From TrEMBL:
It comes from the Bacteria. This is Sucrose-6-phosphate hydrolase. PROSITE patterns: GLYCOSYL_HYDROL_F32. Its main location: cytoplasm. Belongs to the glycosyl hydrolase 32 family. Its EC number is 3.2.1.26. It catalyses: Hydrolysis of terminal non-reducing beta-D-fructofuranoside residues in beta-D-fructofuranosides. Keywords: Carbohydrate metabolism, Cytoplasm, Glycosidase, Hydrolase.
Amino acid sequence: MEWTKELLYRQLEEVSNEELAVLKSKVDNCPWRQSFHIQPNTGLLNDPNGFSYFNGEYHLFYQWFPLGPVHGLKYWYHVKSKDLVHWENDGIGVKPNKYYDSHGAYSGSAIEHKNNLYLLYTGNTRDEHWVRHPFQCIAIMGKRGGITKLDTPVISDVPHGYTDHFRDPKVWKVGELFYAIIGAQRSNKTGCVVLYSSPDLFKWTFEGEIRTKMDSFGYMWECPDYFELQNQGVLIFSPQGIEPEGDKYQNIYQSGYVLGKKLDLLQKVMEHGEFIELDRGFDFYAPQTTIDSSGRRLLVGWMGLPEIKYPTDQNGWAHCLTIPRELSVQNGKLIQQPVKELESLRKQEARTKNIINSELKMINSFTGTSYEMICEFKNIDASEFGIEFRTSKKEKTVLTYDVIEKKVILDRTFSGKTIDSPFGTIRKCSQELKQDKIKIHMFVDVSSVEIFINDGEEVITSRIFPKGESTGIRFFASRGSVKLQAVKWDY
Ligand code: FRU
């Protein structure tokens, strides 16, 4: 089917129930529906939006095109949860039905104000020449869940010196003032973020660009986020147009952060260290954070990337969100850990202690398609070792630690149905052993894996599309042996 502009920009109301039912049954017949991740009922999910804790619940919205696995007219879809684990679908949050968001309710964030949750987002519009005109807009959610949009946008112009790539406001409050950063492209086609302030979320003043050390780092910065953690400033953004460099920047677009002094809101300067990728896998983009009632800084990302076709496309849907991660700062880096609440998913438990050498080792009860597994490798005298998972005769996804290069390597060459992408099938990242040990904490779902290395020093997130029968787990070591201690819980 060819996705013409007309088909891409249909409102949901224009679509017949029969058409929706056909699409839904295609989706329901997909062998790669996830079991514990947030995924769309039909169509395409992308960025997490409006992540917040409000009125005793976690709220998350996501960019949603309901009608197929393509980037058409975007809605905000609403999900909520009491525990960050079990999410309830709550229907459409923001519909793109006004002149200021006629071509999509694009990404944005949420903040509580006067007992309501304010959603600040980009209204994407296109004129008759298909030129973009972005607006920044507000929708207000009450405690009973109803969401109302304002009649007019709160920011209607792009300031001089920037192009129409101007979107994804992230809002926060300091004292009595609200601040928002927006992802932007300068007229010279480089990416940056700009700062606005507001006393009431309705009237906004353009404060200027935030100066960083990255004057020429890609052509657009999408989905910026700023927060302070353990007395430091963290600026997250997703730059487009970065060339690969060694093991880094291997995906079509990147997602990472700089850490440094707190953002100087008067001078609009951020002093910071190097740009660090948040995730070293194949499928991670446009993350957003929030703070919850216990003061935790939580992050959720889109487990997908733009402009890449995925095997689920043929079943009428694409993508999911990552599990939530809790952030902390250690030695000048962000540490990301799966939220503790996920432990509530643990069912049947299996444990092993073993010596792994040159034979592939399978262990009783270590199988499955949806599980959590923690492996500690020590007494390492092999040159490499690791885990093959979601295996069968023909399929395997392989995680290797290369002792000589000191690198963790994820190989999805033989994971199953291949992803039609020119960006390769192997990802690597450097990682030292810790007291001669390495800890691998993984969350495997029907079509994904999230791997936390050494308690969150690195995270590797990837979609994989194995057959349902590929349930094996095998441990291996070459030229020597390692001692393995592992525990696994079915989910
Ligand atoms: C990032 C992004 C955002 C935009 C949204 C549209 O994936 O391109 O910049 O607001 O997706 O769906």
